[in-house]
Amino acid sequence: MTSLDINRYKVMYISDSALTPRNFYWEVLNQLGCEGKFYRSDAKRQLTREITNLIEIQKKIPVIITDEAHLLSRDMLEEIRFLLNFKMDSYNPMSLILVGQSELKDILKKQIYEAIYQRIDLRYHLIPYDRQQTGEYINKHLEYAGETREIFTDMAVNEIYKYSHGVARKINKLCTACLLHAAQIQKKIIDDHMVRLIIEEEFNW
User: Which residue has the higher pLDDT, 99 or 205?
Assistant: First the structure.
């Protein structure tokens, strides 16, 4: 998403495993620079107006990314149908991206969610990285953050791969925890000893 032209797209990211429809509307409206109405129905109408303004006046395409989508409640998934039905001139101008673990596909294939599943234009399953790809993935994220020097040693990456088995979500969480710990103790390089310490203290429970 970092490669999208900010003059053409408005990206909104939401990550909340306990997301409710009202909180969803509030969060999207907040990222659009608005204070959401208290009642769900009012917030829904407010979002419709703001999205229309974004598209017609600001000439931007809204992109809503919902993480941890496999944990969304039935009520929240049903509400997604509203967004998928947001049509103008016979097409949907909004991009809605659901990100979740593999069980998300199984959930959406259930008959009660058939209307949602049929509206999905693109499905992508991310397979785990190998050791080399794990290192490249970490370095690319550091590059996106503006960091050019090596922070994780090769041995540290080995430990990260051993723990995560190349699963991007696990890589992200472990690397974030390591970076926070390194910042706290003012250490510029993350080695395998630190990675093992973080795994033992924060992930083995």
Answer: 99
Whether 154 has a pLDDT exceeding 90, the answer reads yes
> What are the Cα distances from residue 155, in Å, to 178, 180, 186, 195, 201?
14, 19, 20, 9, 19
Which superfamily is assigned to 9-117 in CATH?
Answer: P-loop containing nucleotide triphosphate hydrolases (3.40.50.300)
Distance CA 116, CA 108 (A): 7
Please tell me the pTM assigned to this model: 0.71
Instruction: Tally Cβ neighbours within 10 Å of residue 3.
Output: 5
Q: Which residue in the block uniquely carries the two structure tokens 């008959």?
A: 111
pLDDT digits (tens, 9 = 90+) for 171-196: 999 999 999 999 999 999 999 999 99
Alpha-helix runs per DSSP H in the chain: 21-31, 40-56, 74-84, 103-108, 114-117, 131-144, 154-164, 168-184, 192-198
Distance CA 170, CA 204 (A): 13
Structure tokens at 140: 């690319």
Could you give the count of Cα atoms lying within 13 Å of 91 in the half-sphere of its Cβ? 5
The residue with greater pLDDT, 47 or 94, is 47
pLDDT band at 200 (very low <50, low <70, confident <90, very high): very high
* Class (C level, CATH) for 131-203: mainly alpha
Asked whether the predicted pLDDT for residue 205 surpasses 70, the reply is: no
CA distance 133 to 41: 46
DSSP code of 154? Answer: H
| For the chain, domain boundaries | 9-117, 131-203
